[in-house]
Design goal:
With 173 residues, the protein is of the alpha/beta class. 21% of the residues lie in helices and 25% in strands. The protein is globular.
């Protein structure tokens, strides 16, 4: 099975309008008109620069649904990770997540620079910038064995805010 990438994710949410607004306003997803006729309680969204038919499906299960307990009290998916092109985009996303009260952490994983967020139902996600293959060095590779504090400004000074991440790793060189 030769997997090339994640095509889309489907999430159960308690309030469809609230979740669509979050993913649209905070993360820049746009609604895609593809909900089957007569079907209520679902929305499909596409990331701003995506070529996928849709990247996110949201299915409403109602206000009585509790927040996600995956990893705390139940089994389940911990998070998905979405990759951004530049550290400037990562910094701007961190600001939007913080303003929405949705930024729950940041990490420097050596080769990846990560933000962690939660949507209104407590579903977690990661937003990453990956060091391009031609800029990897022994320090970055060794740092994959630890989780460090992310300093986005320091990383922008080191790699450049507009350097396209993931080239030669998740994108062709």
């Amino acid at each position: 099975m030769g997997i090339h990438r994640l095509n889309h994710a489907v999430l159960y949410v308690s309030n469809l309008e609230r979740s669509v607004a979050f993913y649209r306003d905070v993360l820049g997803f746009r609604p895609v008109a593809m909900t089957p006729d007569g079907f209520r309680g679902a929305a499909f969204l596409q990331a701003a620069d995506s070529t996928n038919d849709h990247d996110l499906g949201l299915f409403e299960i109602g206000a009585a649904a509790g927040r996600s307990q995956a990893g705390r009290a139940t089994v389940g998916l911990y998070h998905l990770a979405w990759e951004l092109d530049t550290l400037d985009e990562l910094a701007a996303t961190a600001e939007r997540l913080a303003a929405a009260g949705a930024l729950v952490g940041t990490s420097d994983h050596g080769t990846t620079k990560s933000l962690y967020g939660q949507d209104p139902d407590g579903l977690e996600f990661e937003i990453v910038w990956i060091i391009p293959a031609d800029l990897l060095d022994d320090d970055a590779l060794a740092a994959r064995k630890r989780i460090g504090r992310l300093d986005i400004d320091k990383e922008r000074r080191r790699y450049g805010g507009q350097t396209r991440g993931g080239v030669g790793i998740s994108l062709p060189a």
